Amino acid sequence: MNTARFKRWLQGLPTHVILIGIGLLWLLPAVGLLVTSFRPFQDVNETGWWTVLSAPKGEKEYKTYCGACHGNDGRAIAAADLTNADLVQNYRRSFALLPSLKREINGQPHMGMLSVPDEYTAATIAAYLRRISGIDARPRFTLDNYIDAMVGYRGKVTYESDCASGQQALDLFCDWRDLGNPRGMGRAFLNSLIVAIPSTILPILFAAFAAYAFSWMHFPGRQWMFALLVGLQVVPLQMTLIPISRLYAQLGLNGTFWGVWLFHTGFGLPYAIYLMRNFIGSLPHEVFESAYLDGASHWTAFSKLAIPLSVPAIASLGIFQFLWIWNDLLVALVFLGGQHPVLTYQIGNMVTSLGSGWHLLTAAAFISMALPMIVFFALQRYFVRGLLAGSVKG
Amino acid sequence: MSAKKQQIPGIMRQGRLTPWLYLMPALLVMATFIVYPGLNTFYLSFRNNANTGWAGDNCLAGAPCWSIFENYRYALTSEIMRTAFLNNLKWILIMVSGTVLLGLLIAVLADRVRYESIAKAIIFLPMAISFVGAGVIWKFVYDFGSGQVQIGLLNALVTALGGKPVSWLTVPQVNTVALIVVGVWMWTGFCMTILAAALKGVSEEILEAARVDGASEWAVFWNIMVPQILPTITVVITTMIINVLKIFDIVYVMTGGNYGTEVIANRMYIEMYTSFKAGRAAAIAIVLIAVIIPAMIFNIRRFQEQEATR
């Protein structure tokens, strides 16, 4: 009995190994981003994010070379307390620390029997001393990156310390007004919302009307118009950018919210109508029939029957359209640009201008992902349903 | 098709105008934002960059010239566009096969374990975030430090194994594959979800019968599951090809199309908004849609078959 169970377990083992392996592989890059976004900026470029829970950099070297005399906490020799900032201040870099290590103290070599560390190790130890003495102390995790990203801080330390010392950049006020800084993610978050909400509601509204007509009304050209709609779903954005750019330039719509709202509505419609029509069209027609027999008009049937009954489809569609717009870069880049920067635009800019400011980039990226992830986890069911309805089922 | 017509109850008569009132907002917006600009782009692809004359004006004396098709000469034969075509082909080959195979594998395996929903959610999660966000995530994975410390996961792994760190995003050939990996990471969830739904539709009895008859799991998968979900696989592949052809954000954010990673959609953006060569950009857009049109026709055909069997 037991061997049979063990055999079954053994047979299932490869499945688990492969699945869990792929799962971990999928999560790992995102975990790296998340962890990094909470680390102090000094640490981010110094050590990999996977070392976040291990001892701070330099501790091992310190223990090897200095721990025996100075103690693991650095306080063993009262005359040379390594947690004393005033003392360490003199040896903050390897070129200051190394000579002192080579010097003799009371006629004995400083290092005693130990060899003097090389320059790289000395620099690592110096960095560690700065850390334990409080000159360069920092917590393992911090929210500074998020604050800095939200207000669009681009300085060398952190927004908070700049503000505390009164040395902030000219465009920062050090109060809530900084959330509106055009370079910040706070402003961009708001802009993304302003873009996404009407661009989600408008196409669903228009699509509901059109889908009702396609489902329950007679008119010439119904079949081929709908077939055309199926084709329009795959037209790439690139096909329309140039003429619309020129049109908007004439109408003064470039860089306005109206421009993107309308554009997203136009491009969301084919899929929205398709999905809504498949749903409204598959509602039991007895329901509509009896409504008409009772003297209901099309408007009544549409507003009192079709719309309330198709709430699940509207939910799926809403999530899809919202996420698509929230995550879009191309349309925002072309029609809004820097006038009303949205999240994706802002991050795209940071990538090219900051290079390796990973502490800010990771925080900014996570700010932009927070909302989609909440939507996804809360409404996963609708999300998957919409996906299936759109691409496979007719 | 006529079956569909009869589905509408006869009493639902309406004025001749009513349907158009319901359709008008949607049709108007689509005409303005898809149909008209699409046709206009086609026209612009034969014009010079300022739209003041025909495309032949762009020709340089002594250089090869296709007169009115000059923009297409650039879109089809220039060095950078050939790189773009080749890269798009690589994208299609690697990304489509990667996402479909991985998606199928996960769909089949996840069906047998108790933590199915968690496993699927993890694979699916990247679908919810932006290409830009994914670009940042992976740029960090690929980070290349010129000094001693590697803070990029991949290079840390390489150096830990005794190798030399690689600048993944600037070495030609390697970098395109590195970008495609990001695409696979993002889109496998999509393929998995659709294929998993199709697999759930395969009748349990047939599978059981085959297993009772002593068929191996591999034979069950290959001879029963795959043929049954083949139509779905075709649909997934078509959808993925369309998606891959339109790929823009990943390349734009991660390399900007430099170091030989150019793709068609990014080139179109650069011609239009960096070089201000509208004619060329329009021609590239037309080439893009020309490649997509077969998929479009396939979609319409499939739709019509579905309608016939409704």
Describe the structure.
The complex is a heterodimer of chains A (394) and B (310). By secondary structure, chain A is mainly α. Chain A folds into three domains: 2-37; 59-133, Cytochrome Bc1 Complex, Chain D, domain 2; 185-391, Orthogonal Bundle (MetI-like fold), CATH 1.10.3720.10. Helix content of chain A is 68%, strand content 1%. Chain A has a two-stranded antiparallel sheet. The longest helix of chain A is centred in the first third of the chain and has 36 residues, at 2-37. Chain A starts with a helix and ends with a helix. Chain B is mainly alpha-helical and 310 residues long. Chain B has two domains: 36-77 and 278-310, no CATH class; 81-276, MetI-like (MetI-like fold, Orthogonal Bundle). Helix content of chain B is 69%, strand content 0%. Chain B has 13 helices and no strands. Chain B has helices spanning 2-7, 18-44, 70-77, 79-110, 116-124, 131-141, 153-160, 174-200, 204-212, 217-245, 249-254, 264-273, 278-308. The longest helix of chain B has 32 residues, at 79-110. Residues 1-6 of chain B have low confidence and may be disordered. Chains A and B meet through α1, α10, α11, α12 and α13 of A and α1, α2, α4, α5 and α6 of B.
Brief summary:
The complex is a heterodimer of chains A (394) and B (310). With 394 residues, chain A is mostly helical.
Runs of chain B with pLDDT <50, length 5+?
1-6
Helix content of chain A: 55-70%
Specify the CATH class of the largest domain in chain B: Mainly Alpha
Give the biggest sheet of chain B.
Answer: none
Q: End-to-end distance of chain B, in Å?
A: 9 Å
CATH topology of the largest domain in chain A: MetI-like fold
CATH architecture of the largest domain in chain A: Orthogonal Bundle
The secondary structure category of chain B is mainly alpha
Largest interface, C-beta within 8 A: A-B, 105 and 110 residues
Beta strands of chain B, count: 0
- The structural domain count of chain B equals 2
Q: Please state the CA-atom Rg of chain A, rounded to the nearest Å.
A: 31 Å
For this structure, what is the CATH homologous superfamily of the largest domain in chain B? Answer: MetI-like
Tell me the strand percentage band of chain A.
under 5%
Q: What does the largest sheet of chain A look like?
A: 2 strands, antiparallel
The CATH class of the largest domain in chain A is identified as: Mainly Alpha
What does the radius of gyration of chain B come to? 25 Å
Distinct helical segment count of chain A: 20
Element-level helix/strand string of chain A: HHHHHHEEHHHHHHHHHHHHHH
Question: Which H/E pattern describes the elements of chain B?
Answer: HHHHHHHHHHHHH
**Sequence stretches where pLDDT stays below 50 over 5 or more residues of chain A:** none
